[in-house]
Amino acid sequence: MISESLPQFTNLSFMPCQPVFSSHPPSLRSSIFSSPYFFRNNHNETQQDKLLLHATTIISFSPRNQSESILSIVPNVVSVDRPIKEEPNSMEFHRRNARLRVQNLVDRIRALPISERIRIIHVFEREQAFQNLSGFNDALLALFIADEPDLALNLFCNISSYNLMPDSWTFFIIIKCHCKKNDLDEAKRVLEDMVEIGILPSVETFTVLINSFCRRGKLQKAIEILEFMGRIGCKANVQTYNCLLKGLCYVGRVEDAYEFLMKIKKSSVKPDIYSFTAVMDGFCKVGRSDEAMELLDEALEMGMTPNVVSFNTLFNGYCKEGRPIEGISLLTNMRERNCMPDYISYSTLLHGLLKWGKIQAALGVYREMAEAGFEVGERMMNTILRGVCRRSWKEEGLLKDAHELFEKMTNEGCAIYPNTYGLVIQTLCVAKEVDKALMYVNETVRIGYSPPRMITFNCVIRALCREGRVDEAVSVLVLICEERRIPSRICYNLLIHEFNRLGRWLGSCTVYGAALKRGVIPHKRPSK
Length: 528
Fold this sequence. Notes:
The chain has helices at residues 2-5, 26-34, 90-110, 120-126, 133-145, 149-157, 168-180, 184-196, 203-215, 219-231, 238-250, 254-265, 273-285, 289-301, 308-320, 326-336, 343-355, 359-371, 378-392, 399-411, 418-430, 434-446, 454-466, 470-482, 489-501, 505-517. It is elongated and about 105 Å long. Helix 8 packs antiparallel against helix 9, helix 18 packs antiparallel against helix 19 (378-392) and helix 22 packs antiparallel against helix 23. It contains 26 helices and no strands. 39% of the residues are buried. By secondary structure, it is an all-alpha fold. Helices cover 61% and strands 0% of the residues.
């Protein structure tokens, strides 16, 4: 068992944010902090070369047996005679007391051009911002938030020049900087440095690193960090386990994630709704939405309150599996539980309904979304309109909906894509509103819009010929030629056939000759 292999701590007590040097003389203590060893960006020293403060706190990140299941890593695996006292939640403390000061620094950094931001450190020095560690940490955090991790790391390398010693909050920021740069190995080495100089990392620090490994699919590395937490007496919390659950699902180990969740349920660290949502998402991504729904029911039985993310996960799963209609009842379920759908809820369901051809249901969701005050983007509006237009060719009742949508988009200044415009014109032709169709064809050309596809021109010419308006149909043919496009064979066939039907032999000969001149050989020929 993992718990049996963990080192035991006896008669050790770490004070919050205070380095422990009880086993080292003052000369060695000063050399540790004055040496650039602890404040470098990279190092190649081996683990055996490093100074160890206590023989019992040997740090080992050696890989576990790959066949060993993560399920053996559960809460309460650490057995210590006297647990190490954890520092207060310094991250929340700094957020409460330094938020405005840090935000001011962030604003000042972002106000500078990127090429000049390197000068901000000299500005901070002139303002004596580094007189104490709190000001130094604020500057580090501001650089991190302003997306300048390299500047933060460079500043950290010079911490000894300000006669300051880093604390756990300093290291936390530095680890986040390395994670942002995707330099996770260096982040792990910083974690080692913390413990070696006697600063116990907080559970948040470990969780940040575990989460970074999991998000990149390096699950084994994340497990090693979790085991190391146990060795030094730092107990993982539910957020730590949630990161691992997401990591397992990310690499496709959904069954392991489910079993791990069940293992956590039996421990003292109870899962929360995010734990269940992480595994639900894993099930939905592999087409097992029904099992995800069962997990949600289980969470409800435990008295948890599902959030909008939980429901959005199910919307995504149902739509991927071609079952978007089940999302309609899920919307009702959400409202019954006082969980209001957000933009993602509606847009995911709407996209799924349109993808699988559920146009009537999509219209209902669209109207509900608009009533809820959400703005439907122009891309989605165009998708809805195209779907309604196509379905209206078979269901006449949708013609009115298509017309209303088109008018609303036009009145609100919503951009109508060229392919959408073409489908609207074709729909008007199917509805025998040829005058409107002809007007929109001319309008697209007049406003410099991308000209309709040839199939759209064919529909307009066919609709005009069906009503015996062959001369207007010829004007559409002329419009095509003026756009420097070659009319299709279908255009010429329709016109020649209509001229023949009307007995206008000369007209059919003219069209036939124009086709040959453009290299098109119609199937229809002039006949008296």
